[in-house]
Amino acid sequence: MEVEAATRRFHLWFRGLRGLRRELRAARWADDPAHLGALVGRFVAHMEGYTAARAEMDPVWTLSAPWASPVERGAAYWLAGWRPTTLVHLLYTESGRRFEAQLPDLLLGVRSGNLGDLSPSQLAQIDDLQRRTVAEEDGLSREMAQVQEGHGAVDSGGEIDVDGIVYRVKSVLGRADALRLRTMKRAVEILEPAQAAELLVAAADMEIGFREFGLKYSSGRND
């Protein structure tokens, strides 16, 4: 029953993600920073709520993610979700693409206010965020590798410490989710509302697009 409830929870979260992407897409070019800021806040809160719900789940189900397609689990997931640095890489990609498209205007001093118009201060903060996030990812990857290699798996009586293993997995997955959320929050803090909206739309596009591809691929393999 727990996996069924977790699957329903995922589908509800994913439906909410689609709705928030639609709202952000419609509002991201509007000259209304307060409205954009509120939408960005709702997006982050949506992620935060799902992270809190995952913390209550059996870590075995969280790690195996039975609601995800094999493509998602095999090609995209790191500790039951996207690598936090994926968001930073996406930010750099979107910024570079925008910058190239509007370079003539920028040379004339015309500012766009989007991701192609990041200030030196913003770029320095994003670089710092990337370095810190990579370091934390590496630490979590090493810790999970130790669990999978059996370090500390046997208790003092020579028996497999199943509860201890599950506890360690839960701890690593919880901190991975916390890092994902913290990275998103920090990126949003660095950016202006319109820039943050643009990044979150791109992040939702990636999440939704990869899932749709995974489901389509799996369906084709089963035909």
Helical/strand content category: mainly alpha
Low confidence ranges: none
Global outline: globular
Report Rg. 20 Å
Describe, in plain words, how this protein is organized in 3D.
Helix 1 packs across helix 9 (193-222). This protein is mostly helical. The chain has one domain (1-219). The protein has helices at 2-27, 33-55, 59-64, 70-76, 84-101, 103-107, 120-148, 162-190, 193-222.
Note the topology.
Blueprint: H1 2-27, H2 33-55, H3 59-64, H4 70-76, H5 84-101, H6 103-107, H7 120-148, H8 162-190, H9 193-222
Keywords, please?
9 helices, single chain, mainly alpha, 223 residues, globular, 0% strand
Short structural summary:
The chain has 223 residues and is mostly helical. It has 9 helices and no strands.
